[in-house]
Write a structure and sequence with these properties.
Layout (H helix, E strand, L loop, with lengths): L11 E4 L6 E4 L4 H13 L2 H15 L12 H15 L3 E7 L6 E7 L4 E3 L8 E3 L5 E4 L4 H11 L4 H11 L1 E5 L4 E3 L5 H9 L3 H12 L3 E9 L6 E7 L6
Antiparallel strand pairs: 1-2, 3-4, 5-10, 6-7, 7-8, 8-9, 10-11
Helix pairs in contact: 1-2, 2-3, 2-4, 4-5
């Protein structure tokens, strides 16, 4: 005789940061937590990212949910909210004092994590010169994971250039709009290599300013009494 199964998981709502779409979700179950823990133990970033993505896909129960369109910061934020309802709304982390380096244990309220980055009024157009502009785009989490897995053995600078290439939508002149998805990766990399250092820095800065999960942390060091105010960013730093 089959054992009974639990079907009464509570349901919650949150907004997808990039689209502002409201979605309904449930806490993750033991089977999903097991996959997450196995991915973390593998110490393979690609395995971890795939597990995060699959967990969100399983736990979001809204119809017409477009998981393939999620930006990297969507996945980070959504996973933290699901984790808060699944395991607990606080996560304890160790933070070194900026004055004496003593490790301080701090509890982060995951429900207070926010997504911040470039403002709504900031443009996706980068003026490279008087004649040439560049339109940027935010790549999806799925594409970012595929790229990281594909390029992980390359030197750091080549990984950066390939990431920047993926974030470039089109090159525009007064007469023509060159859609970069119609060009080969080699041609796009050649275009990047032809830029000056200042032009390259403009593109890199745009990518660096993309939204990310943040938490305003305040603590007083238990050893020296120094006030430590800092931002916690990046998913791995929340655990």
């Amino acid at each position: 005789m089959a054992l009974p199964k639990f079907n009464n998981a509570p349901k919650y709502e949150m907004k997808v940061p990039s689209s502002k779409e409201s979605v309904t979700y449930r806490p993750f179950l033991v089977k999903e937590e097991k996959v997450l823990l196995m991915a973390l133990e593998s110490e393979d970033p690609a395995n971890t990212f795939h597990a995060l993505f699959d967990t969100i896909n399983s736990c979001v129960i809204s119809k017409n949910f477009k998981e393939h369109e999620l930006a990297p910061y969507d996945v980070e934020y959504m996973f933290l909210q699901i984790r808060a309802k699944s395991v607990g709304e606080t996560s304890k982390i160790s933070v070194p004092c900026k004055n004496c380096s003593t490790a301080n244990e701090v509890a982060i309220d995951l429900t207070q994590v926010k997504v911040e980055g470039k403002g709504e009024n900031e443009t996706d157009i980068i003026e490279l010169s008087d004649e040439i502009s560049l339109k940027m785009k935010t790549i999806s989490f799925k594409d970012a994971v595929v790229a990281q897995s594909k390029n992980k053995d390359l030197p750091d600078i080549e990984q950066v250039m390939k990431l920047l290439a993926q974030c470039m939508d089109s090159v525009m002149t007064a007469d023509t709009n060159y859609k970069l998805s119609d060009e080969s990766e080699e041609e796009v990399i050649e275009f990047i290599e032809s830029l000056s250092s200042k032009q390259f820095e403009k593109i890199k800065q745009w990518v660096d300013n993309l939204p990310q999960v943040k938490y305003d942390l305040k603590l007083t060091c238990k050893e020296c009494g120094e006030n430590n105010d800092r931002e916690v960013t990046g998913l791995t730093n929340f655990f």
